[in-house]
Amino acid sequence: MALHWRLAAIAAFAVAVSGCTELTAEHPLFSITDQAESAPIAEGVWIAISEDCPERHMRTRGRFPAACDPFELRRTADGAWRFAFRPDLVHGSSAEARAEAEQRGPTAFILAPAVERTLDARSFAPLYVAELRGLNPEGEDVGYAVLAPVGPMPAAELRLLSLISCDDILRDGPIEGVTPHYTVRTNEQPASEIQQSALADSDTIETVEVLSGCTASSQAAVREAARRAAIENIGELANTRLIRVRP
Fold first, then answer.
1. Could you state, in order of their start, the residue ranges of all structural domains in the chain?
2. Which terminus of the chain has fewer CB atoms gathered within 10 Å of its CB, N or C?
3. CA-CA distance, 128 to 22, in Å (whole number)?
């Protein structure tokens, strides 16, 4: 269930994306005070709408197919957000899946506007950044997702970009506050099939720098990265549809 592992350990929320490097941070850059006064999304049980989980499941009152990836979004007592996968709402879920979800527990995240302007209590942003904490068992990793609320606020529908790709955000040039990381490889150790093909005809050992990650050091850098990621992945953002189905 790719969605729940990205957000919960999705981002969200983690997703194993072959050959993809994502934006991280050495420590959390956002706090509860960076969130907008008005909650942009509604609390409750949500599902992911797709070909394998069509819209009719929005009216389901019992359990959902596994493809719906039911999860719960709640505010915590301190005002942060909490994501938790709900295997108990999956039809035919195994005891192993339930135990694994219980062991991981919920994932906390901060939901901050991806705009630089200050929002008043009645204003909302078109795009938000979710800063996810504890993406590994040690609870040290920080990752980012991009959320676009749809409809009246607090929104009962979302579009999601479950990670911010370093390749995407640096395609138009560097971002102040984002440090790219590179791995040096040779044609004896190609980093991908494309590089392997390009170097296959070479009789000499050549080196190539491969982008292996990127780290943000400021809120402004994360916001700019989120906006670039949304532009580069507008199709994915539009097609990843999350719907609130229960309070």
1. 2-165+222-246
2. C
3. 17
